[in-house]
Amino acid sequence: MVYLTAARRWTHTREGLFLGAAMLLIAWTGPASGTSGNALLALSPAPATGGFDAQAYLQDPFGWPALAAEHPHGWGVAYISESPPPGWSRPFLLRGGGKASIDGSLHPGFGTALDEMLPAHSAAVLTLLSAPDSAACYPGKPNPYPLSRNGWLFVHDGVIDIEGIVLGAWRADWGPEWEAFKSSYPRDYNGNADSTRGNAGEIYFLALMFELSLAPDDVPAAFRRTLLRMSVLPGWEDWQFNAILQNTECTWALRYAPAQAEHYRLFYGLTTSGTYCIVDTLPAAGGEWEEVPNFSLAVLPSEGNVQILPIEFSEAPEHPAGGGRRQADSGQGQGGESALGIWLAVAESPSIGVVRLRYQTPVGSQGFLEIWDLEGRSLARVPVDGGAGSLEWNPMPGTPAGIVLARLRVGALQSRQRVLLLP
Questions:
Q1: Which superfamily, per CATH, for 40-310?
Q2: What is the spatial distance between Cα 316 and Cα 314, in angstroms, rounded to a whole number?
C-alpha cells in the first residue's frame, strides 16, 4: 500500500499517465534516434570590443571552415539585418550542403553567405552539421539549422530523441492554447511522411516559442518552463539541451547537459568589431573566453552586463502573469501566491524515505495530488481540498530510488515538481 499523509493517511488507486515536455543549439553527434552537434558560432551586438577577430576566423579556410572536415553534411547561416535588401524578408536563412571549405578555399556558397552576413548582421548564427540520422536531422532538405520563427534565431546543440519528443511534447495534452499554437506554427521538418520522425530541435524550439507566447518579456522563465516540460519525459537524463536563442537586442546561451557535460560546452567572448561571439569549440586564434557553467543560462545583452542565471527546479518555476493559462506549470510567487492561485513545492530534493510537499489551491476548489514514476506508473493519488496545506508521501517498501514526479491538479490547472528519491 502507498500512502500520502496530511492530517490523516490516504489509500490510493493506480491510474495511467503520460506527461509531456520540450527545447535549442547546432551540429550533431549522437544516437540514430536523436540529433546532436558540435560546430557553431553566434554573433550579436555587444557594448564593448575584445581581442577575437571573428571575421578573419570565419573567412580563413584554416579557421572555422576547417571544422567542416568533421562535419561534411553541410552548413547553415542565419542573420537578422537592420537594413534588408528590397524584396527580402528578415531574418535571412541560407543553407548549403557539403563542406564549408573545399580545395583550400571557402565553398562558393558559404563564401557568398559570409559576404552578405558579415556587413549586414545585427545577430547571426553559423552552423556546421554532422548528421548521424538523415531522417531525424534533415529529411528532404539540406541542414535545417539554424531555425527561425517570428524574428527569433535558434539553434540546438545536443541530443534529443525524436520519437520521445514527438510523443511526449508535440502530441502532449498541454491544453487548448498549445493546440491553437500548433495550428498556427506547424512543423516544417516531418520525417519523410513519418510523423514520429523529423527534427527534434525544431519541436524543442516550438515548445520554447509557445512558452514565450505566454510570457514574451521573460525569456529565462520560458527556458525554465520548457526544460521542466522536458524533464518529465522518459530518458530525458540522457538528452542534451544546449541552445542559443537570439533577437536583435540580446542573445541567450543555454548550457544544460544532464549527461556528458564535458562534450557539450559553451564559451563566449568579445570580438574586435564589438560583438559577442558564442562558440562550442574554442578557436585557437586569440581572444579571451568565458565558459558558461553547466545548468546555466548566459544572457548577453547589446547594452549592459552579461548575466549567468542558474537553471534549477528546487521550487516551481515562475508563472507568466495574467490568467487563461491551462495545463501548464504554475509557480510560486511573492508570499506563496501564484498568478492562478495554484502551486506545488518540495521541501527538499533529494528526499530520503519521505517526500514532503507544500501546496496551495483556490479556496473552495477540489483537486488531486498525484505521484508518478518516469515510466508513467501511478504511485499515489490523494484528493486535496482548497487552500494551503502540506502532505507527506511515504513510499511503499521496495519503491526504487530515483526521480519521481509530483503533480497537483485542479480542473485544467496543474503544477508539477520533480523529486529525487533516495532510499
A1: Aminohydrolase, N-terminal nucleophile (Ntn) domain (3.60.20.10)
A2: 7
